[in-house]
Amino acid sequence: MAEHLLELRNVSQVYRSGDREFLALKEVSLTLDEGEFLVLLGPSGCGKSTLLRIATGLQRPTSGEVLYRGEPLKGVNPRATIVFQTFALFPWLTVLENVEVALAAGGVPPEERRRRALEILDRVGLDGFEGAYPRELSGGMRQKVGFARAMVVEPELLCLDEPFSALDVLSAAALRGELLELWLSGRIPTKAILMVTHNIEEAVLLGDRIVVMEKDPGRIATEVRVSLPHPRNANDPSFRALVDEVYAMLAGETQPEALELGSAPGEPGKLRALPDVSVTPITGLLEALAATPGGRRDLSKLADELGVDSDHLLRTTEALELLGFVTVAKGDVALTPLGETFAEAEILARKEIFAARLRRLPIFRWLLELLEAAEGKRLRGEVVRRALELEFPPAEAEKQFQVIIDWGRYAELFAYDDSTGVLYLEPIPTSA
User: Fold this and answer.
1) pTM of the complete model
2) How do 422-424 and 378-380 pair as beta strands?
3) 201 and 247 in contact (C-beta within 8 Å)?
4) Nearest to 428 by CA among 416, 411, 420
5) How does 398-430 read in b/e, with b if 16+ C-beta sit within 10 Å?
């Protein structure tokens, strides 16, 4: 059997914060062969980008093995490059000079650097912009420079870390098409592409194979082979059917309440992280569902109608599910009677319903108990953050804190003073 271009065997990644350990990736195994466009798809926080860095040797896994062409990868892989979400161009260098930087780092002579840089800029459609500076370019053109810089070193493995997510819809669509044209036509020497995304349609549009990941901890849930021929039409029934299938995989199905709610910080069991989404899209999605006869919608069609990205829609749906306002099954989201009541209620009644649902969530129950027991029923936000950091990595703990503040304020469960960083129960204390 021919060797794989890239192989990951039982890769796990543990991060440490103080005396705490957090499992980011758990026993991930995958392969990538020559001629393959492989997409890692999953929600934010599932370890996709970490896996990409491990695959290129930018990061060593805590355990497991990375093989490139059958040999253990030691250090950074010189035959792989990454295009990141942010453009990361040097603002004081021209387009040509930004591309030449990658070759200069490899010791390529100046004349050869210029020839190869001009050639790749022509291939990606930037001929005529060689002397421009990044500030003179649109976001899509700046990302083209990023692609050119990555491809000018002629990598065997091209890795893409959500390269289109910082662009507007039209620029992203154009750049996807151009990348696909370069790849399918063989106009770049790249042997395989490994891309990270949370956009379901993007994954189905580009990938030959989609690895669907789950979080807490990050792991592979399933794989989907995409046999649709290129060019793929997003309106084709076969394309839509596959998008629906992947939506259903990522959305999952509503679980029994004990599993949905999880446990409180410090209690036995699994602490359920709150979806990173504010109250406004939560109420907006409920209203959109309530406007639909029967209150049931196909998630992929809803994403198109609302013009939102799949990751944002799935996070919002997860929040509604956690609050008991919807159920999810087979890629469809449906209002519960409580969700319908909320959507039809006046502003103050909505707040009361929201507050009642939050009091059921273990993480809010825990916080309200802390506030009740605190002197003056006041807590410094830093105390809450430190407690959350015992359960989550620091970046995730900060996200959880911000979601708690947003949801809790809306429900009027507590108040928060931004200037002092203090949470307190109503009524608002008078000044001394």
Assistant:
1) 0.86
2) antiparallel
3) no
4) 416
5) ebbbebbbbbbebbebbbbeeeeebbbbeeeee
